[in-house]
Amino acid sequence: MAEITKSETIKGEYYYGMGRRKTAVARVRLYPNGDGSITVNGKPAQQYFGIGETHLATISSPCREINLGNYTITVRVVGGGTSGQAGAIRHGLARALVRMDAENKAAMRKAGYLTRDPRMKERKKPGLKRARKAPQYTKR
């Protein structure tokens, strides 16, 4: 496997990770020597996900797992709803942390952050009202 190097941008060096959950896709950039802020689609994460703490806790869980210091995290996320987007960001951030330091891989794997969650919405079947709900049965 080829050695992974840091990418260069106008802002400087960063580590990259892409995460997916349901139909959401997140592209995460991890900038060292930052202020610890998380920006999602150009907005602060608290503003993007609203007042609820559950999505913010989901996003920052990989950082808490390894006690991440002064890093700035920028995210571009498309598709899905807020829950799927939060899961995609967590997946992408975990991948970026592994790319930053290979020693983080064991902790991320143990916490289950590197595994792509395969659960998707089941498709509607013909003759049914939803994926599994059938029309009401009448005997007479």
TrEMBL record:
Residues 114-140 are annotated as: Disordered. Residues 121-140 have a biased composition (Basic residues). Coiled coil: none annotated. It comes from the Bacteria. GO terms for cellular component: cytosolic small ribosomal subunit. InterPro entries: Ribosomal_Su5_D2-typ_SF, Ribosomal_uS9, Ribosomal_uS9_bac/plastid, Ribosomal_uS9_CS, Ribsml_uS5_D2-typ_fold_subgr. PANTHER family: RIBOSOMAL PROTEIN S9 (PTHR21569), SMALL RIBOSOMAL SUBUNIT PROTEIN US9M (PTHR21569:SF1). It comes from Ktedonospora formicarum. One of its GO terms (molecular function) is RNA binding. This is Small ribosomal subunit protein uS9. HAMAP family: Ribosomal_uS9_B. Keywords: Ribonucleoprotein, Ribosomal protein. GO terms for biological process: translation. Belongs to the universal ribosomal protein uS9 family.
